[in-house]
Amino acid sequence: xxxxxxxxxxxxxxxxNVNDYYSAVLAQGISFIVLLGVGILLxxxxxxxxxxxxxxxILKSESKYDDEIIHNKxxxxxxxxxxxxxxxxxHVDILPDFPNVQHFVLNCCIVYIIVVITMVLFSVVxxxxxxxxxxxxxxxxxxxxxxxxIKIILIVxxxxxxxxxxxxxxxxxxxxxxxxxxxxxxxxxQNVILGFxxxxxxxxxxxxxxxxxxxxxxxxxxxxxxxxxxxxxRNFDNTITTIxxxxxxxxxxxxWRGMTESDGRRIMRSITIDTKSVKFCTPEMIxxxxxxxRIQKYLEDKEEDIAEYNKANQIDTSYIINGRQxxxxxxxxxxxxxYIKSNPNINQNLTKMVRQLQPNEFGIPLQxxxxxxxxxxxxxxxxxxxxxxxxxxxxxxxxxxxxxxxx
Length: 407
Known about the structure:
By secondary structure, the protein is an alpha+beta fold. 59% of the residues lie in helices and 12% in strands. α6 (82-94) runs antiparallel to α7 (99-133), α7 packs antiparallel against α9 and α16 (293-312) crosses α17 (328-342).
């Protein structure tokens, strides 16, 4: 058929007074275009058949893994080789009078097939990565960086194959020839190399996972993606911060995963008591404080303990500073601790305490240290705020003043 087509076209062009050389050029050129068109039609026909048969079988199957073959166009890209294979098979027949053009067309087809095979391998890698991402392990051990590295290796190998084929040399010879350019290549790919090393360290050491809440410089949010060169973080204001992967290893960042996986989220906040408002408790104050149910038992036990101590040591308690005495700040600390212990939003199995910090020019910091059962940010802040609303409002009942700068 090809020979008949070429002969018919050649006779036609000769009949219209075209010389022998150009008649052959036009006849064989048109035949080549026709063959290419047939190859393209076969490619679309193959795609149509696959969509109507193989794709329907895959979509009806219960497994979701094979769906990734469709989503990543593995079979569609394989069909791209049909025109090149057809031309490779008949390039000698279609261009019998032009051996140099035959050689050029053959080389183009081989280069094209190498590129298509690389694209197919890309699709296979993407499909494998998507299947891996279906598992919970993907959040703990993201493989995006490894996948991108494999793609870079495939591209490099594809380029080396093409160069070695066109130059007629072995791949090893081409690699040796490129050795002199290694310094330039290292300079060009230094960010990629650093990112690859960084992503390996992040994954192997379990420093970062998809979904982790991290804070670093201007980033404060959840990790969206960990790839070869960057880590994407969606901040809580819905902006997205992109951080170089290598800097996640070399610079300090805070990962809140431990908090989210623990039994509670820490509350560690203080109020500052005005030093001038701290004083010893008088009997009238003690009686007034006993009306507060949360510390009634505490005050009774404490008063009994203090009385026994002062009596055993024959201390003259007519002057208030002698012996052991309670202070309004100490009673207030006991009240806050009792309040924390009775709060249903506080995890009672974790550390709870109310302590004084080092006094400073503003007064005496009184710190609450406990753990909220709720770890979700909004609910956690509500619980913490409710606790300190109560503490600030209760302080005047113990004759204490919260320090506030007069200005």
